[in-house]
Known about the structure:
Blueprint: H1 7-29, H2 36-52, H3 54-72, H4 77-95, H5 100-125, H6 130-154, H7 158-178, H8 180-209, H9 221-245
Amino acid sequence: MFRNLKAVEIAEGALLADIAVLFQLIAIYLPIGGQVFRVLTFIVFTILVLRRGLYVGIMGLCVALFVVTIIVGTQSVIYLLLECMGGLFLGVTMKWRMPLLPLLLLGVTFGSLAFYGAIILSSLIFAVPLSTLVNVLHSTYITILSLINGLAAHAGLAGWWKQSMYPGVSSLADWAFRYWILAFYIGTWVVLCPIVFVIYVFTNSFVRLLGYDVRPLPRGKLLRRINRRSIRMALKWGILKGHRGG
């Protein structure tokens, strides 16, 4: 468990933690394309675990969280914590050469739990009850439903919408708002599936370029095409999100 770190481990852990902090600051303040640097935070901690092990990676995480809290406050700590934990997870699983499917299933499952825990922690820190989030989602649902009703009526599909689609949508929404704790986790799990896959492809490709001996991505024309599109999606998502945020 606990052990004394060597000087080279301290230096390397601190250096990579500082790089992660730099990427976090760029993601916060760069108006266009800043979100791409959040993916690079995953890569930084993956490399740290591959080079020096999980213990040094955890120490680097603590350093990065402390520095970011001092510089920009607590509002960005949750994002950095999730990114660092994801990087540690990828580093450990790549070091063990875990196959793709179990890695993705574990990553999505634990990522959803971590995201859920981060929301609860944010609720406690900022004194915002979770019921407020549920009320906001319910108001958004009502607004979207009204918009769909108007569009269906305008397109002459009001009868089809109310008889064929609306009952199922209404039943699903009622169940989701009644059991919102479970529904929110399931929704988070579904949303994280493509995100975790894109981050894994991006990280795996990068660390292999650096010469680390990790399990290669599955081969095949279709999978290679998916991998290339995943990397493009990650870059495009970061640029578009940064542009909207600016």
